[in-house]
Write the structure tokens for this entry.
Amino acid sequence: MSRFTGKVAIVTGAGSGIGRATARLMASEGAAVTVADIASDAAGRVVAEIEAAGGRARAQTVDVSDADGVQEMIAATVDAFGGLTSSTTRSRARPDRLDQDIATMDLATWDRVLA
Ligand SMILES: NC(=O)c1ccc[n+]([C@@H]2O[C@H](COP(=O)([O-])OP(=O)(O)OC[C@H]3O[C@@H](n4cnc5c(N)ncnc54)[C@H](O)[C@@H]3O)[C@@H](O)[C@H]2O)c1
């Protein structure tokens, strides 16, 4: 079984570079992926790449510095894919707890991660 079969992931900055590669890899291993980026066109292109390869993805235009936009992104992902199972971010803001779930992270920690 692929590593992410049955998982739902949000990848931010997924229109390019590391985020694009991460989104494509997770989708190729079975995850349904929200491809989130401030650049709508780029997110749409990555979704098309994933779908052409047989994967499942949706595009989300979001500015990750906008807390309301991030909440909308999470809600839309849950609506579209029936849940959210992979949304960790690696942060030095809480060295006692490096891998955190962005869906339940408090706003102050989120802001420290971005800073
Ligand atoms: N620490 C390291 O060793 C290391 C190594 C490589 C990259 N990086 C960092 O990782 C990040 C990603 O690198 P990359 O090469 O994939 O960059 P990239 O420029 O190819 O991709 C970044 C993506 O993020 C999107 N984006 C920018 N601002 C956004 C916002 N506010 N909300 C949502 N999306 C936004 C862009 O549109 C772009 O698609 C960069 O900040 C880079 O500096 C760190």
The pocket of nicotinamide-adenine-dinucleotide is lined by residues 12-13, 15-19, 37-39, 42, 62-65 (CB under 6 Å).
